[in-house]
Structure formats: C-alpha cells, structure tokens
Amino acid sequence: MKSSYDVIIVGAGPGGSITAKTCAQAGLEVLLIEKRQEIGDPVRCAEGVGKEGLVKHIQPDSRWIAAELKGSKIFAPDGTEIKMSEEASSQKAGFNLERKVFDRVLAQQAAMAGADVMVKTRAMGLLSNNGSISGIKAMYMGEVTDIKASIVIGADGVESKVGRWGGIDTSLRPVDINTCTQFLVSNIDAGEYNKFYVGEKYAPGGYLWLFPKGEHTANVGLGILGSKCGTVKPISLLHNFMKTYMPEGKIIEMVVGGVPVSGPIKQTVADGLILVGDAARQSDPLTGGGIINAMDAGKIAGEVCIKAKEKGDYSVKILKEYEDRWRATIGKELSKSLMIKNLLIKVSDEQLNQLAHSLSGIDTSKMALPKVLPILFKKNPKILWELRTLFI
Which one of 33, 34, 182, 386 has the fewest beta carbons within 10 angstroms of its own beta carbon? Predict the structure, then answer.
C-alpha cells in the first residue's frame, strides 16, 4: 500500500469499481478499499438490471448472469396482472445478476486497469488540509494508517459516513427509506418474468418482488416505507406471502437492509470529495433499482477526477461538473420517479385495482413503463392528477 494516491474510493460496489477503473485507465494512481473481506458479499439488493444500461459498462457474461428475463409483470392487490415486454419494459427487466460474482469481476477490472484494491479495510475518518479533503484514515488488520489523496470518493452506501465526515448531510428520515427483507428461495417455479406485487396488502408504501435466479430459484423480497413500518415487520409479511403463494419454497439465504427512496440528495461534492451510488441517493425512489445509476455516476465521477488531475484543481469549482452531469441525466429520471412514488404511497388498494382494471383490453406487453403511465393518467385523471405536469 502506498501512502499517497490521486483518488481513494471507499466502497467496492458497482459505482466504486467503475470509478476506480475509469481513473486507473487514464493513468491516475487509485486505491479502492472495501470494509468487508469479500467484495460483493453479502448481497443487499434484488440484483435486477436493464440490458441497455448494463452493456454500456460491461458485456454480459454467463459467470454472473443468473437469469435472462422475458419482461416484467406487475400485480395489483386483487391479482390483476400488467405484463410488459423485455424490449420495452423498465430497467428492472433484462438480467438478474449474481452480485457475489459480478461485483468481484468489476473490482478485478479496476485492478487490471492499475488500481490497488484492499479488502477488510475500513475508512475511519477523513484527512483535511486547509479545509479541503486530503485523504482518509484507514484501518487494516487493526492498524490505523493515514493515506493521502487528492480526491476521496464516498461509495460507501446508504447514509454515507464519508459524506458526513465531509460535511454533507446524508442522514435519512423514516419516510426517506424502505426497510427491506429478502429471501433467496428455492424449490419453486421462478418463471421468466420479474414480478412486482403492489399495495398495502403486500407491502405498505413499497412493494414485494420476485426476481428469478434460475429455473427453480428466485430472490423474493419486500420493502416497506420506514414511516409505515409501525408494528408491521417486513419479514413477517414476507413469510405470510410465501405461506400463501409458495408454500413449497425453501429459504436458503436471507438478507435485510435499507434502500433510500428520497430522490436526489442536495449535495454530492465538496472540496476533494465526491459521493457516488447509494451514498448520493442515486437509487430510483420508485423501483429501488440503483446498480446502473451507480455505474453511470461512477463513470462520470471518474471522468471528472481525470479532468481535475489535468488541471491540478480538486476544488468544488472543478468537481461540480460531476454534480451537474449526473443531475442532468440520472437526476431528472429520479425526480420523475419520486413524484410517482409519492403519489402511489397515498393511493388505496381499491384505487390500485382500478388503475390495473383500466388497462383491460390494452396490450401492454410491448410497451415500456413510460408508455403505460400516460395511458393510466388519461384513463384515471382524478387518481393521478398530481402527475399532470408529467403528461400535460
């Protein structure tokens, strides 16, 4: 381990590894650290990605593709089904990954590009010089070491500590986060579609998902809006769902965690500091999906780091390009999703059934979600009036 780098990335998820690879390919001195002893494990997401978004960063590989999908199905509380096609559905369809392998491959690519990678290494704080971030305090094998860097990337997940140490408020209120539980379930017919079950019946303020990971195995999970948890526990609702809909299923793995659903954070850069991925709340507040957004943001962050190195200026003045670019692309989509999510959490199960019934006779199987939403608005203006600025 060197004592000084151009860029240190804290967190070896997809966003962190893409940032590391982008910087290293340009010849920057890069350190990528991961607090866990194994990159990608434990898995803390449903592992779904869209094909189009994925291939911008890496070609699909059978080593980490768990399932290729035909599309997505959304189920209203009364069981009414809305099917969307593989080609046109939202980015939740496409592939379901094996993140334990996928994340490791991304880190390997960063390493092959020239980045140093250290696992079981935890950031303990930030170094500063004249008010600018200038590195990290890192703990490895019980020893704390100062490592200098011109830029620190916080890719350390929900409620980023790196962000907080850098003066950015990354805290989340209960209404800003979905509390999630997910089982890896075997001995079931997983099907070829990602399935979403919506409504209070399944998951208050969130949704329940079934993402195939092979012919007889799937990620089956559920997220509840923190402000609606009360005495309701996601794990209890998930057990109830399995008991009713897949009593033969065998749980072979379980994970719990939180997904930010607050929409874009107010600030993602400071002098010598950039936040990427969940640390910057770049996951979609409607779907919870964040892998591709994190990779896209990581790519932008890497490109901005390269420019900063060329100019020898690591201040907000230069790093703000990252903020501007991701807000102009990812940020716009997140803002739309937030509007839709904020409305849907107020819609009753009866109204959700009404929305689904209004599509009767319309073939949505070749439509994308953005094409289905205007149809729903036209047929149900009273329920969806808050979304009028998106469609009128």
Answer: 386
